[in-house]
Amino acid sequence: MKENINMRTKSEFEKMRNSEYANTSDREIHKSLTEGKRLVNEFNQTYCNGPLYREALEELIPNIPASSAICPPFYCDHGHGVIVGENVFINMNCTFLDGAYIRIGDNTLIAPNVQIYTPIHPKDAEARRESIEAALPVTIGNDCWIGGGVVICPGVIIGDRVIVGAGSVVTKDIPDDSIYAGVPAKSIKKE
């Protein structure tokens, strides 16, 4: 039997990004969180289209297109886990916990106070006492409108051309061309 000399153990950060339980007190994760908080603080000292705004935004959210904008204040864990498409507008006071990737498609509008969560914790109470958690990615398609105060739970995929009504809690995937609202969010109309 051949031994694979390229096999190595995944880092805790890699586990987190791959939806596996990871030790959140790990040095690499802690460093990323600390740097993320520094960049969030720096970004939140700016205002939309102010002189330092774009530079601070691009440092916080690498590769954000010039056609996209996020209004401060904005909160996230890492920043580099948020992937934003073209012509996206994210209004003020949104919170994105990006332990796993949060992908937002082109031409999507996100209203104020939207919360997108990727972290999950163990169901077992004793296991929750440990510093472990996993994270499930969230995807929002193209041409969506996410209403004010919406909460999007870990692992949710929202299709293209979807509207989610204000105050909704999205716990399950939403298909293309739908309008969802409520707690939990349910279909109220298919376009």
From TrEMBL:
Coiled-coil positions: none
PROSITE patterns on file: HEXAPEP_TRANSFERASES (PS00101)
InterPro entries in the record: Hexapep, Hexapep_transf_CS, Hexapeptide_acetyltransf, Trimer_LpxA-like_sf
One annotated GO molecular function: O-acyltransferase activity
UniProt keywords, alphabetically: Acyltransferase, Repeat, Transferase
One GO location term (cellular component): cytosol
CDD domains recorded: LbH_MAT_GAT
Record-linked SUPFAM superfamilies: Trimeric LpxA-like enzymes
Annotated PANTHER family: ACETYLTRANSFERASE C18B11.09C-RELATED (PTHR23416:SF23), SIALIC ACID SYNTHASE-RELATED (PTHR23416)
Entry's family note: Belongs to the transferase hexapeptide repeat family.
Protein's job: Acetyltransferase implicated in the O-acetylation of Nod factors.
Protein name in UniProt: Nodulation protein L
Taxonomic lineage: Bacteria, Pseudomonadati, Bacteroidota, Bacteroidia, Bacteroidales
